[in-house]
Write a structure and sequence with these properties.
This protein is α/β, with parallel strands linked by helices. The protein has 12 helices and 8 strands. Helices cover 43% and strands 15% of the residues. The radius of gyration is 17 Å and the shape is globular.
Length: 249
């Protein structure tokens, strides 16, 4: 297994284009030579500035969202092809905030996964349970359902390109972090689910990230776990010094 750690920053709805460019100047300097792979996912309007700043550096750029249709009368939306033409390489799909606030279903997420792959984008597929679901003891069943529906109809060749991010909803933006053992246990079960669907080799090669209040203090311990291959980082990715520490954790 040659899985390399990935530090992925989800900037969410933060930074204007000029602010994003300034943050990128800091990140390019501080993350140069980072031992982990580095990805930033800024807001849509910041993508051109961030992509320009990332040229010739070790920082990859992803989007936070797109619509699953090729084109059409979908006011306010953008397509996967538009992102690809802009220079985007990755895209976050199925984040709990999209599922909750914008009512994205597992079926919509499946359509997005397939549309992203068809347009040459690398999906960062999110999954995760609520606090109630964890307390009810259905974490593994619920996340396996999310994964199985999201990957429905995805070929073995295509699934090799996907990154999965486990984000317990109760730990996103709350300051609460699952223990390393809790996070690793779920990531290991996700890998087991992928193994059941696509075989051991594909499961062993798939990068599975942990997200949920990942910060500079906990990143090294999390990334040292057997089945955690990096982090999907929220607030800490907006601080260049903190994110550079995570990029080297």
């Amino acid at each position: 297994m040659g899985r390399k750690i990935l530090a992925a920053g989800n900037w969410k709805m933060n930074k204007t284009p000029s602010e994003a460019a300034a943050l990128m100047d800091e990140l390019v300097a501080k993350c140069a030579g980072a031992k982990n792979d580095v990805l930033v996912c800024p807001p849509l309007v910041c993508l051109p500035a961030v992509i320009e700043k990332a040229k010739g550096t070790n920082i990859k750029v992803g989007a936070q969202n797109f619509y699953y249709k090729d084109s059409g009368a979908y006011t306010g939306e953008v397509s996967a092809a538009m992102l690809k033409d802009l220079g985007v390489e990755y895209v976050i799909i199925g984040h709990s905030e999209r599922r909750d606030y914008f009512k994205e279903t597992d079926e919509i997420i499946n359509l997005k996964v397939k549309q992203a792959l068809a347009n040459g984008l690398i999906p960062v597929l999110c999954c995760g349970e609520s606090l109630g679901q964890r307390e009810d003891g259905v974490t593994f069943d619920f996340i396996r359902m999310q994964i199985k529906i999201a990957l429905r109809g995805v070929s073995a060749d295509d699934v090799k390109k996907i990154i999965i991010a486990y984000e317990p909803i109760w730990a996103i933006g709350t300051g609460k972090v699952a223990t390393s053992e809790q996070a690793n246990e779920v990531c290991a079960d996700i890998r087991c689910c992928v193994k059941g669907l696509y075989g051991e080799e594909i499961a062993n090669d798939m990068r599975i990230l942990y997200g949920g209040s990942v910060n500079k203090a906990c990143a090294a311990e999390l990334f040292a776990m057997s089945d955690i291959d990096g982090g999907l980082v929220g607030g800490a990715s907006l601080k260049s010094e903190d994110f550079s520490i995570i990029a080297n954790a």
